[in-house]
Amino acid sequence: RSRGPRASVSAEAYGSWNTMKAFTPPAYPKDPEQIAQLKQILGNSFMFSSLEKKDMDAVIGAMQERVFEAGSRIIAEGDDGEHLYVIEEGSPVCKKKIDGADKIVKTCGPGDVFGELALLYKCPRAATVEAVDKCKAWELDSGTFNYIVKDAASKKHQQRDSFLQNVDLLKSIDQYERAQICDALKCDRYAKDQMVVTQGADGDRFYIVESGSLKAIKDGKEVMDYNVGDYFGELALLKSQARACSVQVTGEEATLLWMDRKAFNKLLGPLEDVLRRKGAEYEAYVK
């Protein structure tokens, strides 16, 4: 279902007027350790995790290792995109032009993917990425991406993006920032009455409810309900403290999106003030 204009988003259509050409992905040699590393990285990526084994093997084979020295510009905001990148080593920074000045909006690290938006939506680069130290990255060409990954990834990405646009916490961020969160989120399903978190336990995940309903329980007393679009778990991460409440599934099933502490600190940093304010309201409510 459409939720407002998406003029910048386009998808390839194929028919008698536009026939998909036969395509053979390139294949670059890799040692077993590199293949295992890429399988682990891509298996944790929102875009690549659902690929069948033969498609995953083809994508890994098509990736070419690139090295960027400190100070190198890897991609530039506004340019056309021909590749996406998976970081193996280094900490490149993403910059966007805000009020006429280049401002750092994210620092990447090993395992992060960037450059995918231009390939998914056939749009100009959404940000500039520069190496601040020596950076090793795996480069995937647009041909392989379009032929193997794009259709499934584009559909999944648009569905997840549409959902995140309606999460109150994330309404103030732009498409690029949402895309980063999209790729960092993992998905787990829980059965009726199953405990998601337990009061007093260490907390290392932040959750958003994608479907279903849950309740928060403090000292044996129900104190709050969670429904689609609600989130929880931020207090334990913001304050490095134990879980203040247990959270239990009340519907037949619940689907939760989650990110770990590292991704939470990296991607939701700009929303920390909102999270702390909401957290203070929550603490006052459950006392």
UniProtKB/TrEMBL annotation:
Molecular-function annotations in GO: cAMP binding; cAMP-dependent protein kinase inhibitor activity; protein kinase A catalytic subunit binding
Alphabetic keyword roster: cAMP, cAMP-binding, Nucleotide-binding, Phosphoprotein, Repeat
SUPFAM superfamilies xrefs: cAMP-binding domain-like
InterPro entries: cAMP-dep_PK_reg_su-like, cAMP_dep_PK_reg_su, cNMP-bd_CS, cNMP-bd_dom, cNMP-bd_dom_sf, RmlC-like_jellyroll
UniProt binding sites for 3',5'-cyclic AMP 1: E116, R125
Origin superkingdom: Eukaryota
Listed GO CC annotations: cAMP-dependent protein kinase complex; cytosol
KW Cytoplasm (keyword) present: no
Binding-site residues, 3',5'-cyclic AMP 2: E234, R243
Pfam families: cNMP_binding
Keyword Nucleotide-binding: yes
Domain Cyclic nucleotide-binding: 47-166, 169-285
Family: Belongs to the cAMP-dependent kinase regulatory chain family.
Protein name: Cyclic nucleotide-binding domain-containing protein
Species name: Zooxanthella nutricula
